Amino acid sequence: MSLPLGSIAHANSDTNTLSVEVMFAQILGAVQKSQAEITELRRECGDLRQANANLERQVREGLQNGSVAYTNGRTGFTTPVPGSPQLRAKSPFLSPQHIPPVVPVPLALHVPSASPLGDNVLTPFPCSYRDIPGFYVVIPAGGAGTRLWPLSREEHPKFLLDLTLKGRSLIQATWDRLLPLSSPSRTTVVAGPGHVQSIRDQLPDLLADNLICEPGPKESMAAIGLAAAVLQKRDPAAIIGSFAADHMISGDDAFLSAIAEAVEVAKKNYLVTIGIAPSHPSTGFGYIRLGDKLSIKEAPNARLVSSFKEKPDARTAAAYIGTGNYRWNAGMFVTKASVLLDLLNEYKPDLCSGLLKIAEVWDDEDQRRATFEEVWPGLEKIAIDNAVAEPAAAEGKVAVVPATFGWDDVGDFSSLAELLPAESNQPRVLGDGSLVLTEQAAGGIIVPGSGRLITCLGVDDLVIVDMPDTLLVTTRARSQEVKRLVKKCRDAGLKSLL
Fold it and tell me: Each residue of 13-56: pLDDT tens digit?
């Protein structure tokens, strides 16, 4: 049965009208999506402009201060430039006469994730940057930095090296950074016997009584716990802050504000950590999940720690950042010494008992030595995160202060490369740039530590570390695996190279 021509025309007309409406809706949806994307881009551009303004301000301040930055009369700012590692041959690596003049350049600020922050936006914390009474700084200086081998060695680890070409080693930079909140009388370094003299050379203002020498490596809990026990004996009301000797930080104002806020939270008997705003979904760092706000008037940004997360895979890390509820775990802790020891006694009573036994005889050198020999070998080797932070967080005893300063633990050559200046599409050079010639070689990092010329042709993203006794060649993508070579050297009996 055929339809009248008028009916067919009417049907076609309805179809055309419907098609036009659908097309119009699609166009409208596309326009709205574009407007949303433009709004997001404008917000990101605003964030970048703010970050650039901060960088420009830091550059201006650095240029205005110039060389007086380390000679302004403040205690601790006249420590010597770190020397080269003592290897088999004379190395020009990082010796002052071989470092080309470098205009002070601030470290690249980490731009916080663009994920939705919701109510996680931080409140400016008023910090006077003056000495905080009763606050004691603890700097654990341990580890050999095996992922930076052969640049970093057991006898000359990365915290003793100048990795930014600014004439200050990482431990010196840590000392400088924390001094406004503390003083030499309240700054303690915990280190192994092989590093004591080097630390004394680099930190001449460090008091002899404040350099704690642990007989052997026992991970961070024993080092920080021993310092807490000794400091509590000296000052029962002491609030301590633990900060690794080998981390790099940019944005000192934000750093000092976060620590000052953490001290206020610690006064409420919390174990407090600092949460770093992630700039990318890193698989090399642990994460902190933000919990409920604490509503502490003196610390507007403080939250409970919901949980600690181990280093995730890439998919999980991206999911963490997408929620806006996660921060990097930088391993910084602020708390009362008494609170830390109480937590340690609750979760690891044998370890706590041993540390208190050593601290009890600390002022008697002979008894201290005998007690170390008796107690130290039997102490559990465990990190502070596993020993107290994780179980205490499950009971609501751990707080976090989210912060916005740039942070990196310089865990491998790939991360080190990101911290060094370079020409566009050129390798980064740590040392004398005149010893490196490249042609069509992009990215990567080169350390000309032996004094001989290094040339590269048509290779990208290489890691080349040329020391007087060892040459390392790998790629940035596999720089996390360098510690496997260290193990092979040890297994092969090449301990003198470690």
Answer: 555 555 777 777 778 777 777 776 676 666 666 555 555 555 55
Please report the pLDDT score of residue 348 as a whole number: 97
**For the chain, which ranges sit under pLDDT 70?**
1-18, 36-37, 39-130, 144
What does the alpha-carbon distance between residue 263 and residue 489 come to, in Å, rounded to a whole number? Answer: 44
Structure tokens at 354: 């041993």
Model pLDDT for residues 135-154, shown as the tens digit of each residue: 999 999 987 678 899 998 98
Q: Are 314 and 370 in contact (CB under 8 A)?
A: no
pTM of the entire predicted model: 0.74
Residue-wise pLDDT for 270-323, tens only, equals 999 999 999 889 888 999 999 999 988 889 999 999 999 999 999 999 999 999
CA distance 283 to 211: 34
Question: CB of 282 within 8 A of CB of 276?
Answer: no
CATH of 107-133+214-411, one of 1.10.10.10, 3.40.1390.10, 3.90.550.10, 3.30.572.10: 3.90.550.10
Question: Is the Cβ–Cβ distance between 450 and 91 less than 8 Å?
Answer: yes
Residue 138's SS3 state is strand
Please give the structure tokens belonging to residue 404: 């916005």
352 contact partners, CB below 8 Å, separation of at least 6: 225, 341, 344, 345
- The helix (H) or strand (E) run that includes residue 246 is none
Which residue, among 220, 230, 129, has the nearest Cα to 188 in the 3D structure?
230
pLDDT, one tens digit per residue, over 326-352 is 999 999 999 999 999 999 999 999 999
Contact 288, 400 (CB under 8 A): yes
Q: In terms of DSSP H, where are the helices of 203-348? A: 219-234, 252-266, 314-323, 337-347
How many helices and strands (H and E) does the chain possess? 13, 17
**How far is residue 153 from each of residues 34, 142, 144, 416, 483, measured CA to CA in Å?**
53, 12, 6, 16, 12
The DSSP annotation for 295-316 comes to -BTTBTT-EEEEEEEPPP-HHH
Residue 301: Cβ-neighbour burial (10 angstroms; 0-12, 13-18, 19+): buried
What does the longest C-alpha to C-alpha distance in the chain come to?
114
Exposure string over 98-108, b if 16+ CB within 10 A, otherwise e: bbeeeebbbbe
DSSP label of 386: I
